[in-house]
Amino acid sequence: MPIPARPAALALTLVLTLAATGCGAEVSPDTREGAGAARTSDGHYPVTVENCGERRTFESAPRRVVTNDVGITEIMFALGLEDHMAGYVMPDDKGDLTGVPWKDGYRKTAWLSKGRINKELVLDARADLVFAGWNYGFSEGEGFTPDALRRVGVDSYLLSESCRNGQGKARGVMAPLDALYTDLRNLGKIFDVEDRADALVTSFREQVAEAQAKAPRGADRPRVFLYDSGEDKPLTSGAYAGPHDIITKAGGDHVMKDLEDSWTTVGWETVVARDPEVIVINDYGDTTAEQKRRFLESYPPLANVSAVRNGRIVVLDYVDLVESPRNPAAVGLLAEELRRPGS
């Protein structure tokens, strides 16, 4: 996905039902005194999870986690794990963070930087684990990788949406919502909050199922294209980024479902040939959603594309569309838009 710099204000009202679940339960006491801490007396540890194809064993729950970007940070908050965090890194263009169900997490947790995450910041925070992802903070070009952290004694957990699939730097090894559920369950196990993780997954599945029950079906399903950014070539979602599941489960036919990658660029000629009936704008960064809309409506090659011709352009926020606990609600929001007359 875009190397995060990101959302403006929420473009659609976001209603989530998990505030109490995400923040209300108590976090299990952590007994770790350092990297070589002994097992806890309840026998939960050590635990082993599979993360992006690698089996990882934890002798105790990390105590000083640094997260990168809004979706990743809110996964931790949804699980009630702010007491296990040293802080988070994200730009300040996130909209009203006090209005989200996890506002207490933002209030309690240090905002370490509004710039890029890096090794020096992590070491200054005395982090024992970094929760980030490929192109969600981790980058060979920046020299910030799990291997680089391992060499200085810091562990890492990779966002499952960002897992590389073995084809160069292409990303994606599972359906997007499965990636969210996988991370919730893995982190539930790592931090000994499995009941809380299971409750979130159950609630999210119910939320998605409820939206699907009301979503367009069959011939009524409109063709949908996700527009992230870019004028020469659009950055969009393939089959392994959040928008694929959000579009599909909301009752849309994702026109880029054959792209075996997460976030990637395509040519405008491909978009024109697939003639989307609805375009979803990803709202984030320095270019506003309205500026993106004006570009789409004025770009000559798109003049005869159905979505542009009929004015069927929808806006969702960045955090709705990258892997985050807001994804299930985004399915409902988009399903409602696709059910509107003319949509």
UniProtKB/TrEMBL annotation:
Signal peptide (residue range): 1-25
CDD domains: TroA_a
This protein's UniProt keywords: Signal
UniProt xrefs under SUPFAM superfamilies: Helical backbone' metal receptor
TM segment ranges: none
Tagged with keyword Cytoplasm: no
Domain Fe/B12 periplasmic-binding: 64-343
Tagged with keyword Signal: yes
UniProt cross-references to Pfam families, sorted A to Z: Peripla_BP_2
Domain of life: Bacteria
InterPro entries xrefs: ABC_Transporter_SBP, ABC_transptr_periplasmic_BD
PANTHER family: IRON(III) DICITRATE-BINDING PROTEIN, VITAMIN B12-BINDING PROTEIN
Family membership: Belongs to the bacterial solute-binding protein 8 family.
Protein name, as recorded: ABC transporter substrate-binding protein
Species of provenance: Streptomyces rochei (Streptomyces parvullus)
